[in-house]
């Protein structure tokens, strides 16, 4: 279940283990009233599970293409690997970024970094919300760490593009703005969902990710 397997060189796929759907660290209803149980169940057990299954299929086909030296097939499989691999990476982070005991504001080093790079927590919250609202169609809003410059940045990614694989930023906090993440509860009003999700952000998890990527 380690997401590290997802970023292993593709040449290592010959001896790979199949990816599996990670368990949630809380019940499907635990994030109510902010995200209801029906959304969480469908999102985790159907949507995320589909990315995992399709990733395993794509990797199996890629392994066969490698064995045959079929470069055309290898290239043609790249979109499926990116989409389903990204879906698995993103959701694995997302579930841990949420908690029934979440909300409020971060503390310690993360809070100091947010103040340094955004001026205040309120400014950061406004920027990440705006980036997430502004995603056209489906995608993600992210707080990431730019290791080269030692700074926090907000960014948006389309579809299931993984943050680190497409921008180089290390993912700390991801907000899923695909309609399947909120439509059953918030209909097409994405800003209402984004307002609610701040009540369940797991700042301990985000802080741990920040501490780990600075090492």
Automatic annotation (TrEMBL):
Entry binding sites for Mn(2+): 43, 91, 176, 180
Residue span, Manganese/iron superoxide dismutase C-terminal domain: 106-209
Segments forming domain Manganese/iron superoxide dismutase N-terminal: 18-99
Primary enzyme class: oxidoreductase
Record EC number: 1.15.1.1
Claim: Mitochondrion is one of the keywords in the record: yes
Reaction(s) the record says it catalyses: 2 superoxide + 2 H(+) = H2O2 + O2
Top-level taxon: Eukaryota
Classification via Pfam families: Sod_Fe_C (PF02777), Sod_Fe_N (PF00081)
Assigned GO CC terms: mitochondrial matrix
Cofactor: Mn(2+)
GO molecular function terms attached to this record: manganese ion binding; superoxide dismutase activity
Transmembrane segments: none
Keyword vocabulary terms for this entry: Manganese, Metal-binding, Mitochondrion, Nitration, Oxidoreductase
Chief location of this protein within or outside the cell: mitochondrion
Function per UniProt: Destroys superoxide anion radicals which are normally produced within the cells and which are toxic to biological systems.
Family assignment from sequence similarity: Belongs to the iron/manganese superoxide dismutase family.
PANTHER family: SUPEROXIDE DISMUTASE 2, SUPEROXIDE DISMUTASE [MN], MITOCHONDRIAL
Oligomeric form and interacting partners: Homotetramer.
Entry protein name: Superoxide dismutase
Gene encoding the protein: Sod2
